[in-house]
Amino acid sequence: MSFAWSKPYEPTSALGQWMDSRLPLPRLVYGAVGGGYEVPKNINYFYNFGVLAGLALVIQIVTGIVLAMHYAADTTVAFASTEHIMRNVNYGWLMRYMHANGASFFFIVVYVHIWRGLYYGSYKAPRELVWMLGIVIFLLMMATAFMGYVLPWGQMSFWGATVITNLFSAIPLVGDALVTFLIGGFAVDNATLNRFFSLHFLLPFVIAGTVVLKIWALHLPGSNNPTGVEVKGPQDTIPFHPYFTSKDLFGIGVYLIAFSIFMFFLPNFLGHPDNYIEANALATPEHIVPEWYFWPFYAILRAFTFDFILPAKLWGVLAMFASILLLFFLPWLDASPVKSLRYRPMLRKWTYAWLVSFLVLSWCGGALAEQPYIIISQICTIWYFAHFLIIIPLVSRLETPLPLPASISEAVLKGKATTGAPAGIEDTGRGAAPTGPVAQPAE
Amino acid sequence: MVRIIAIFTGLIFIFVLVLGAVTGLIDAAGAEESASDKIKHECHKHAKDVNWYWEGNLGLGVLGGFDRPQLQRGMQVYREVCSSCHGLEQVAFRNFTELGFTPEEVKVIANEWPIPVASINPDTGEADTRPAEPADRVPSPYPNDVAARAANNNAMPPDMSLLAKSRPGGADYLYSLITGYEELPADFPEEAVQEGLNYNPYFHSLWIAMPPLLSDGIIQYAEGQPEATVDQMGQDVAAFLTWAAEPKMEERKQAGIGVIVFLLIATSLAYLSYRRVWADVKGH
Question: How far apart are CA A301 and CA A320, in angstroms?
């Protein structure tokens, strides 16, 4: 599809030819995930996570549809209907634990996938739209997960919904009216639960549509790779099928084993005990926390404690949304023509430091809003914004990148000769770096 | 231009955060823990670690199921002690077959349950009660929350169906709480004593409305069962409540073993085919 040497689709059977001239769906599939899609041969296991994210989405949609057959979105029975699923529906416990842990695993996969994009510079030209569509999917996922967590109508469902929808009241002038409009009343109640169920059912299909756009956008330039050097010729690529279908099948197996360990043996480890208490508008839990995958952003929200011109709450809301929206501008904030951090030693160190601060930030988001967690989350929030808004723009101007390999094939062969590590494992490119030519523009 | 705006935006956020951090630290330096928080930190105890039957010898509990005689004893403690205040509304009598009772025994248990089931008089249509049937849920002792509070000095005895999953520490915590009533420490400040409540260092606020109800020999276990000591009854009822909160635990673990064994085999085969497919890729 994307390269001149990509194998064209040639149906051999009569049915295949008949179909191809009427509805060329097999041609589309062949070009998208079959023998017709050429992929850099040096991509490593980090590149399995795109397919894993797709699998996680499918698992969520399938289990979610089954759960919706037994769930009732009404505040008087929502909690009981969830327990009905757990106790009386055949394999209902399996569906619900798969769905609840599936959400967590979806986020784990997507976080690794985003990290991969940051590390190998996959957000840069010509893949800016691939990156931006990914951020759109991430935002949709967050909205979907947030609303899904409200459905069992436990204490954390109710109070999480109350806290998060109340954030919009920080908006000057229209805030309070907006909150009333969003939740359909003056407090989170049946109207809120019903619209959240409706939207929770709708958004996964919007995500699926965005995924199609994203794959479409990806398949024009083709996949990036750990060297960040663009494909030069047929020696650099191998077809998706059978090479990456087989590799992805193995990756899916490993993923499902990890998923099963949680689903069958630690099904409530990632959840909060309070959500097994039915929602009660008169009893506020001591410690309201969102699900773990929101913790970094929850910590950013709570890091703002000083009313500087605007109220602290509004600063927190602005910063929380800004922390994700700034990723849309990342392709232009980073001015370096070199994609992969393998060849950017300075930014590589900064990026690892950012990763550590981001993990600490997640930990703070799950902790109580008291010292020393407040000061730690303030420092890590400073680090978060400094990294994307100041360090990346400056370092990309100041650093001297290492010489890049002339091509993917050269990097693979040199890597083999110097380190003996198989291609596809993280460090292969580095051995080749000093001998290659200088940095080339990404275009 | 994008980069200049970005750096400017970043500096604004950082400035506001630094202001918050500095004022926060100044406040923290002057702040002192309130007396009631301090006493809570000093006296609160973490749940005792019990080696439950379902946790197995290694404590991993990969295959560990429930001890049926223990669940039956725990059900007896619930019926004779807890059920006078606490409901178990998610559990039906028919589920008691999972405790090892036969359907006939379950019918007898349901019919003889101390609390009748609310019903409607078929002749007059007025509110009435009748003995429970196996298909019924375990009836709650109070018709509604208002009645429950009215009978308990405005404290609400929680429904017990999900207690083991809705409290951090689960069975360990439940066991520690019901067996954990202690004498008030001698140096406990008088102003922190809460009248009408009972001191229990395992409860998050140290003061719980529920009085200590278990005492040695308060109930009689069946022939051949252990002595009904406070410790034994505490463990038995905590085990029963763990079953009540997660009745599908055994089914779940067994399914998990099957699924993971299958996945290990399938993934090994997938790995071998991956290596084989890739054998001809240059430099690999």
Answer: 5
